[in-house]
Amino acid sequence: MLVPLLIQCFRDPQRFQAKAGAACWTDLLQQARSLGLTAQLQALFARHNMLGDLPETVQKHLAWGWRYYQKQRASLFYELLQLEPCLGQANYPCLLLKGAAYQALALTVSEGRLYSDIDLLVSRQQLNDCKSKLFFAGFFEPAMSAYDKHFYLELSHENPPFYHVKRGTALDLHFALFPLAGRKNLVTEHVFASACQIEGSCFQVPSLSFLYIHAAIHFFWQEEQHKLVKDLIDLDLLYSQLAEQQLLPQLLSDAEQFGAIEPVVNTLLLIETLFKRSLPDAIARQLDQSPARRDSARALLLMQLQPGVKAKIAGALWYLRGYRHKMHWRALIRHIWVKSCLAWRQRGEPKDSNN
Amino acid sequence: MPLFSLHTPPFTVRIDTDSPALFSDLARLYPADVLRPVPDNDHVYDFHIDYKRRFSGKSRPYHFRTGSEHFRMADANQLIPTFEWGLNWCVSAYQQQYLAIHAAVLEKDGKALIMPAPPGSGKSTLCALLMLRGWRLLSDEMCLIDPASGQLQPYVRPVSLKNASIEVIQHYQPGVEIFHRTADTEKGTVAYLRPTDSSWQQQNSSAQPMWIIFPAYQANAAEPVALFTMPKADTLLYLAQNSFNYAVFAAEGFNLLSQLVENTESFRLEYSDTRQMLELLEQLLC
Predict the structure, then answer these.
(1) I want to staple A242 with a disulfide (CB 3.0 to 4.6 A). Which of A38, A247, A336, B75 is the partner?
(2) Is A354's pLDDT higher than 50?
């Protein structure tokens, strides 16, 4: 099996460096830049004390990426500080998710990781209150059709995205971790129960195992194909930290109770295969016997990482499979029907610049 | 010619194309030690450019991409302009080594002139004319400031001329060779001028910034040439607004620009008569 260069590099940077020729480094730099992983490469080589041993051009590009990351990290912290006075008044938990949570916890995965928006989680009951607080802090929702709004609130897992009126910051306000239309019956209360307060801040963060579960859900139950490698690297770094802290049994237990054992089992198996990580014996046995193993889905995923026509076919199947997970077939049919009717009614009308 | 390379300090590029003409077209603009028919096996390239025909682009079949990032599609007869714009895009979007400003840069007697200006101001025309009068070209598009030294790093590439400026150059420098005149591009008719030999020879030599001039061609101006001193604060703000990566450099960027503005003279140059403007400029600067 041909493993993508970036995965080879994150798997074993010393071995990669020993084998890589100039053309290979050129390819690695292009791929890292395309996925926004240049600064994460810098962090990887710094963790392994290898920066000084790399070719000069590689060091130069890693420094470019790191400079950009530092600017992004400063912007993220600035935005979080701007949100503090507004959400500090909330008498309910506001959880940071994904990149913002990784940064707040200073996890290994956050080192060099870029972000595009801030993800927050509040309970469904507090959604309207949180929205009004964000409104008074300068965030607005762009206009959209009544059906699209219904789609967000009743079928997806988040409010329509917010943007800051002056700074343009994008903020996703979640009330669940996965689209409701997927009918996965995930117990969001467990995420809140796992959370801990960030010292000196109004924000909370989910436990490390729930951060992994969230990443695994959005990797294994989705249709996107363009950032599989990036997501796998995130998962591997989260996994390594869980393994270091001996939290893998906790991860499986949390995933089982939360209702997301399938993405967790299969992403752990993928990490074992692709990154050659040795899972602890007890965990490996548990995965071997798990009814949540999805061998064909994992094979489909591995096929997408290969070059050629097979990857394109696998990508098309992955797309269909992803939608099946995100939307129950009845919800999907209704959605397609309503969108088609709306498009038919609006034919010939001038397009709204907001859509 | 599927794979070749371009070594224009401080950036190198590996190009993968199925165009039979791209290499020979570029060879009219770049010297042989810069444009190489085969990539160097021991060299790590800054950018890999994929510039091939794709089925989806029936009318504009060539797609310019780096990694998975798509820049633009091009007709077979517009390969060169799209290539040059694409290369500018790669550098302006991704390099963070230098503080980069959208400006032309030239040098004479060790002193460099920076000319930031919006399109249509006559920046490229003035840049080309000064180069043809013996100034060394550092760039007609990108002023690269080294944060460690405050010196200007050359990035020598062909000078891009647009629309009326092509005739202006031919009028003031009869016999000058203009390459790849291409009509009906997104920017109208474009053509290219080869950098002078001295510009290529000194492509690794940085220069000390001395002047910042904002040219503004005004066809109906009352005076043929008028020169105004620019307030330093205005100059700094304008440079920051026209920088590709000022925000990324944050406080370091502000300090660099402050230092640059403090140590240079800045002017606004309004002109309708090119010959008088050149005389005044050379009187002022030399």
Answers:
(1) A247
(2) no
Cβ(B48)–Cβ(A30) below 8 Å: yes
Q: pLDDT tier at A302 (50, 70, 90 boundaries)?
A: very high
The alpha carbon of residue A53 is apart from the nearest alpha carbon of chain B, in Å, by 14
Q: What residues of A are in contact with residue B68 (Cβ under 8 Å)?
A: 34-35, 226
Mention the CATH class of domain A5-345: alpha beta
- Write the DSSP assignment of A173-232 as a string of letters: EESSSS-GGG-----HHHHHHH-EEPTTSS-EE--HHHHHHHHHHHHHT----TTHHHHH
B94 touches chain A (CB under 8 A): yes
Q: What is the pLDDT of residues A168-216, one digit of tens each?
A: 999 999 999 999 999 999 999 999 999 999 999 999 999 999 999 999 9
Q: What is the pLDDT of residues B42-57, one digit of tens each?
A: 999 999 999 998 876 5
Q: Tell me whether A25 touches chain B (CB under 8 Å).
A: yes
Q: Cβ distance A27 to A41 under 8 Å?
A: no
Hey, is the C-beta of A27 within 8 angstroms of any chain B C-beta? Answer: yes
Q: Which helix (H) or strand (E) holds A98?
A: helix A98-104
> Does the N-terminal peptide bond of residue B147 adopt cis geometry, omega within 30 degrees of 0?
no
Q: Does the model's pTM come out above 0.90?
A: yes
Beta bridge partners of A120: A96, A173
Question: How far does A68 lie from chain B, in Å, by closest CA?
Answer: 6
Higher pLDDT, B113 or A341: B113
Contact between B87 and B34 (Cβ < 8 Å): no
Question: What are the domain boundaries of chain B?
Answer: 3-94, 99-285
Q: Which residue of B has its CA nearest to A73?
A: B248
Is B96 in contact with A65 (Cβ distance < 8 A)? yes
Q: Using CA atoms of A205, A10, A115, A39 in order, give the dihedral in degrees to the nearest 10.
A: 120
Is A27–B48 a contact, with Cβ atoms under 8 angstroms apart? yes
How many whole angstroms separate alpha carbon A68 and alpha carbon A51?
Answer: 18
Mean pLDDT of A297-321: 94
Taking a C-beta distance cutoff of 8 angstroms, is the pair A173, A130 a contact? yes
Q: How far apart are CA B238 and CA B139, in angstroms?
A: 19
Nearest CA in chain B to A226: B68
Chain A nearest-CA residue for B95: A64
In this model, does residue A340 exceed pLDDT 80?
Answer: yes
